[in-house]
Amino acid sequence: MRHIKVRTATADDCGELAELHYQSHTVSYRDFFETDWVVKRERGYYQSYWHDYLTNQPASDRTWVALSNKHVVGMATVMPVQGRHAELNARVHPDLAPGKVAALRHMHVDPDMLGAGIGRALMRYVDAYLITEGYAAAILDTHPENTRARQFFERSGWAFAVRVEDNGIPAVVYHFELHHNS
Q1: Closest to 111 (Cα-Cα) out of 60, 163, 149
Q2: Which residues pair with 138 in a beta bridge?
Q3: Where are any strands of DSSP class E within 9-70?
Q4: Is residue 182 situated within a structural domain?
Q5: Which of 67, 77, 89, 142 could pair with 81 as two cysteines, CB 3.0-4.6 Å apart?
Q6: Domain containing residue 69
Q7: How many CB atoms lie within 10 A of CB 158?
Q8: 129 backbone dihedrals φ, ψ, rounded to 5°
Q9: Can you tell me the distance from the alpha carbon of 42 to that of 61, in angstroms, rounded to the nearest whole number?
Q10: Can you give the CATH number for the domain in which 104 is found?
Q11: At 40, is the pLDDT very low, low, confident or very high (cuts 50, 70, 90)?
């Protein structure tokens, strides 16, 4: 196994994050997303997205990168639930205020390095951050046919909550309950 280092992402990482995100969508997703969706992915979109996000990332959000040989091979972003994630949270945790629930977003690993421990390394940072920031729970969503990701999340302690559709695209929502020591 390669040595994996995890650190907070910076704006200098946007190029590698964009390429990883693009590769994840065009390689890992091609088996279960419509071909039309996959082939319409454009590297420029991802480059612009990550540049804008990392240069304007709210203080409440956190993005980590996993590095191997000084190259980005994985990423994860955690943020307070908002937008469609707030709507999903209302279905999963109706008794928890959105400020007590985080969303795990953009969990991606280099398709050529799946199974190398990168996801586990990132998840340790995600878990620690959720606890440190005092969240009561977290949610994430993925495609129902993204079997490898679903199995990873389940092994990491996440539980299936509900199946939904978002603009005609099916998704499954998982939740993670945090138990704080008082």
Answers
A1: 149
A2: 102, 176
A3: 62-68
A4: no
A5: 89
A6: 5-177
A7: 20
A8: -65, -45
A9: 25
A10: 3.40.630.30
A11: confident
Both structure tokens of 59: 């203080």
Inter-residue contact 46 to 21 (CB < 8 Å): yes
Mean pLDDT of 78-85: 90
Structure-token match 């985080």, residue found = 102
**Residue recorded with tokens 């995890």:** 6
User: Cβ(78)–Cβ(102) under 8 Å?
Assistant: yes
Whether 36 is covered by a domain: the verdict is: yes
Q: Residue 119 and residue 42: Cα distance in Å, rounded? A: 25
Q: What are phi and psi of 149, to 5 degrees?
A: -65, -45
CB 137 within 8 A of CB 100: yes
For 92, 139, 141, 151, the CA distances from 160, given in Å and listed in that order, are 10, 10, 10, 11
| Highest mean predicted confidence (pLDDT) among 80-84, 164-168, 171-175, 177-181 | 171-175
Q: Which residue has the tokens 């304007």?
A: 56
Q: Provide the domain count of the chain.
A: 1
> Environment class of residue 132 by beta-carbon count within 10 Å: exposed (0-12), middle (13-18) or buried (19+)?
exposed
pLDDT tens digits for range 132-172: 999 999 999 998 999 999 999 999 999 999 999 977 888 99
